[in-house]
Amino acid sequence: MSGANPWRGEVTLVIDGERCVMRLILGALASLEAALQVGTLVDLVQRFEGGAFSSCDVIALLGAGLQGGDCPVAPEALGAAVIEGGPMAGARAAAELLARAFVLPEV
Question: What is the pTM of this model?
């Protein structure tokens, strides 16, 4: 996904025809922990790595990424939004957001 700076933890996703650059900032990560009722974000990472994540996890992660990014889509509107590439593209972007929050990109 182009337009994003992986060194800043950014991920790009097209939502309702608008290219959105998302990023997980510290406050959004804290809200995410509370909203998803995970012990730690490592628990959430393990859910994604194990394929045991839910659509609520995906929406929460994308919403948190929108908070930290520069996107015209309100996090509350995500449930009714059209994501280019469908739900799988949204899930991939959510997983990538989570990974980029904790791992430096490969050079």
Answer: 0.84
